[in-house]
Structure formats: C-alpha cells, structure tokens
Amino acid sequence: MAWIEPMEVGCVDPVKLLYWPRYTNPYQQLFYSAAPEELGAEHGPIEAALAAISADPSKAVCFHLHWLNQIIRGNSSELQARRGVSDFLRRLGAFKRGGGVFAWTVHNLASHDSPHPALDQMLGALVGKAADIVLLHSESAAAEVRRVFPAVVGKELMIRHGNYIGTYPNEITRAEARQRLSIAQDARVLLCLGAIRPYKGIEQMIAVLPNAARGGPPVHLVVAGRPSGMEVSGIEAAALRSHVRLTLEPQEIAPEEMQVFLNAADWMALPYRQILTSGSALLGLSFGVPVIAPRRGTLVDLIEEGRDGLLFDPCEPAGLEQALRTALCMPAAMREAMARRALKTARAQSWANGQGEFVDRIRRVHAFRNAGLAQARDS
Q1: Among 106, 108, 110, 107, residue whose Cα is nearest residue 134
Q2: What span, in angstroms and rounded, lies between the C-alpha atoms of 376 and 205?
Q3: For residue 308, what are the CA distances in angstroms to 3, 228, 281, 285, 311?
Q4: Residue 3 pLDDT more than 60?
Q5: How far is Cα of residue 281 from the mean position of the Cα atoms in its chain?
Q6: Mean pLDDT of the chain
Q7: pTM of the predicted protein model
Q8: Alpha helices per DSSP H over 131-163
Q9: Cα dihedral sign for 147, 150, 152, 155?
Q10: What is the pLDDT of residue 378?
C-alpha cells in the first residue's frame, strides 16, 4: 500500500469497529476499553461490517478479525471448510472494495489443533495479504509472524498485551485457597489454568514430573479449565502412571473462582509445544505467580529468565524437565522474590499502549481508500 499522509491533528470523526469472533475471556473487553472514546467497538461478523458500510459509505468502518479458527470450525469435511473459507474471503473482498478497513490481530501462527492444518495455513497467508493493519503483541512475536506470513510486512502495529490486575477478585489467602482445593500447605503447586487442549502439552509435562521433582518437596498439579475433547481421560491416566498428585477441574472456571486456583499456585505451568501469545502468562503474573513457559513468541519479551519466570526450549528434549526441576527445587525465599517481580512485570503491561495509533491508522486507510473510490467514480 502507498504511503498515507497522517490525518490532521484534532480529527475526531467516530470510527465504527466490528470485531469477530467474540470469546468469553475478558481480553477483548479490556483491549477496546483502552481505546479512544471515538472508537465504537461492537461484536459482529463480516456480514455486519458489510451492512455498516452500505448504510453510510462515508463513515470509517473497520472489521477486526481476531482468530481464524471460527472460519473453519463446524465444517466437518475439508470441502465444506474450503467453501467456508471461500465465502468469508468473498465477503471480505466486497467489504474492502466498498471502502472498509480490515485489521487482523495475529494471536497464533496456526489455529490450535486444526482439523485442516494446510487449509488453515493457506487462510492465514490470504488474510495476511488482505489485511490493512496487522496487530501484534511483541517484537519477538512479530519476527515469527513475518517469517510465516511475509505479506504482513509494512502493515504491523505493536500493541502489548495488557495485564489482568483487578479484572478478577483477589482476596483469598494462599492458605485458604489450598484448603479449598484440599492441597497440602507445604506442597509445590503447579497450575495449568485455561482451556484444556492437546497443544498445551499437559500429558507430556506429567510424564517428566517425577524425575523433575525427585529429591524435592511434594508436588501437586492443578489443571483447571474447559476441555475441548477427550483430554481429561488422558491427563488422569498420565497422572496415575506417573504417581502425580492431581486436582482436575474440567470445566470453565467462574470469574469469582479464578483467585482460588491462582492464589494456591507456586508456578503457572505452560508446557506448550507451540505458542505465539499467551494470556495465561499475563494472568499468572497478574496474581504474582511466576511462569514456566517455552522460549517462543511474546513470552521471550515478557519473561526475564530467572527474574519473573523460567523459559525452556520446546525443541530440546530435556528442556521442560530441567525448567521444572529448577522451579520445584528453588528455595522458598527465592520463589517469593520471583513472585514479587512477576507482579511488577504485570503492572508494567498496560492495555493503553497503542490503541490511539490503531484508530489513527483506521482513519488514514479509510481516507486513502475512499479517495481512490471517488477518483474511480469520477474517471
């Protein structure tokens, strides 16, 4: 796209934004609430975005796509999935031709556990090419996205993922939290909190836990979140084989109950095989829980090794086990110091760190596109 001159200072024309899909976690609410008041954000699919530009072609309208999996999800066969992708891209093309602005936040390099991975990658490449604005949460994540989707180069806008401090109640003590979950007060507690999915590597972590914990204090693993399939039986079987103490809560955790799991934990364990952005890491840090995570994506820029968490190389066979051993054998005073620094890291992650530029970019792309449409009509 050609260079677009900045809009004049003082321009306060309202911008209408339709975001899709909508998830139940508070990420989207926090992201848009940090934007300037002239951004009117509401949930709506591409059809609603098309209707908005049809109703008022002169108004800046942005369709903001978050996750690609909803475009493919629900289509059992690859043929149906391809039709769903084609239909979405057709509507998206019509939206842009009508003057609409298309933004994409890249949350992951590939939809997790996609039934059609090749189609998913093709969709990501096409969406990256079609996007006017590509939102990313860190420089390290951006480097990975540019490598996989080179068409995004020149369209990037960096907006850090904010924290969850104050989003959930945080009043219960560690002792009370552990009593509620029937966990020994002297145990080292690892927490996996969030949707239970195969890509998160929980079974693989359980397999190496006995070696990692040998010679140290007793270890208790807590897994809490809504499963997507048969993961629960696999986790239970793995814990039995490895003789790992396990508390399993296979359901969506109510907001008021989040504090129970987080305040019971010594470590937020993220044994992911692949990751670009992790809201779970920010959630753990927001409760002063240090993070064990792969050295990938936003985590490289967020976590300082040995300060507020521990990072491992997911391609290194012994990487996760070594990180777990370091965490589980760490003296209590050192872990408590890491917990304080974890909370300090979270406090530095404000949501309002680029939304104003996002709104300005929407306006500039809209002005550029509408000028082109007007010229085409006059010629």
Answers
A1: 106
A2: 59
A3: 41, 30, 11, 8, 10
A4: no
A5: 9
A6: 93
A7: 0.93
A8: 139-148
A9: positive
A10: 67
